[in-house]
Amino acid sequence: MKKKFKLDSPGMQTFLASVVAIIAGLVVGFIVLLCINPAGAPKAILTILKNYLNFTRPNLILKNIGGTLVRTAPLIMTSLAVTFAYKVGMFNIGVAGQYTIGIGCCMWAALAWDWPWYLCLLFAVVGGMVWGAIAGFLKSVFNVNEVISGIMLNWISLYIVNIWLNNDLTKETVSPGTLQLHNYAKQGMIPTLGLDKVLNNEYFGPSIFVAIIVAIIINIVLNKTVFGYELKATGGNKHAAKYSGMNDYRNIILTLAISGALAGLGAGLYYLTGIEQWETSASSLPAMGFDGIVAAFLGGLNPIGVIFSSYFIKHISIGGTMIDLNVYSSDISGLIVAIIIYFSAFTMIVRMVLKRLKERKAERGEKQ
Question: What is the pTM of this model?
Fold first, then answer.
């Protein structure tokens, strides 16, 4: 027998909610474009949606597909970090800081210590893990809300990495950017395994596939293992979990440590491709960490769902840079993403209300 999809199933409701939010965001974005310049609005919204399909030459299409996928990999990881913590009852807003520490670790290991790429990647994971564990320790031992500690640690991480990488070993002499890996630390770059030639993009490698595999593993851990059940039980009610014999302190620290490790891995998967330099004069946190929150909620806080939501967000974000910038701002894609997340939150609220009404109706039916 074929399994039928039911509209009242959580999975289908999440999917429909995301689709509605995306359509609503695009409609509002189109209205904004109309207000700025009605004549070019249809072309602009299509340009955003088409992204690499705006090019006619096959080699350019392939190159930009590769660029989109390279930027999607770290977003999958940061959204997984948010999703993992949220599933265990915590809101890890400190993902941006954990991602930033991961950048500092992998760049220092590659440029200053001449480590091979796999050790650089591992160092990024450990850095993110330690940074996440600090927030977990503060919550479990001193009952400091993870949102507050996460925000504080975000800014601490930014200035630590700026100071850390601002030296002759890692920074260019004439600019605030770090040294380019392909010139100074090729051993620290993740091997492309020939995939760069497939998509005609020198930065494209196995990062996107690693991110997808990790998403599948996280989904299995959360939903199919005793370990995942214990973590979710602790997040749901740490007192009940403790009464059942679970170590609530350990589980809280472990949850945020794993969440931080995922963010650190995302930093390594991106920066060790050599696609971008870290600016040691940066005064704001990487957007990748906060975009992870958006992708997580748009993906219905599902490890598999965030793969598609992360790609969509990067797809339209890059598409937004291809519109006529003399007429419109490239920030229009950011506006669309912001509207989408607001609609996502709204649809989630509506789902919760409908669920409660359905439960109350069922209770009344049982009493009668």
Answer: 0.92
10 Å Cβ neighbour count for 215? 24
- Determine, yes or no, domain membership for 42: no
Domain count, the chain: 1
Cβ-based neighbour number of residue 243 at 10 Å? 10
CB-based contacts of 165, cutoff 8 Å, min separation 6: 104, 107, 108, 171, 178, 278, 280
- Decide: residue 239, CB within 10 A, 0-12 exposed, 13-18 middle, 19+ buried: exposed
User: Which positions of the chain have pLDDT values less than 70?
Assistant: 1-11, 239, 346-355, 365-368
256-298 pLDDT tens trace:
999 999 999 999 999 999 999 999 999 999 999 989 998 998 8
Q: How many CA atoms lie within 13 A of 147 on its CB side?
A: 5
> Tokens 């704001």 identify what position?
284
CB-count burial class (<10 Å; 0-12, 13-18, 19+) for 26:
middle
Q: How far is the C-alpha of 69 from the C-alpha of 311, rounded, in Å?
A: 7
Q: Is 178 inside a domain boundary?
A: yes
160 located within any domain:
yes
Structure tokens at 279: 């600016």
**Spatial CA neighbour of 214 closest among 261, 272, 146:** 261
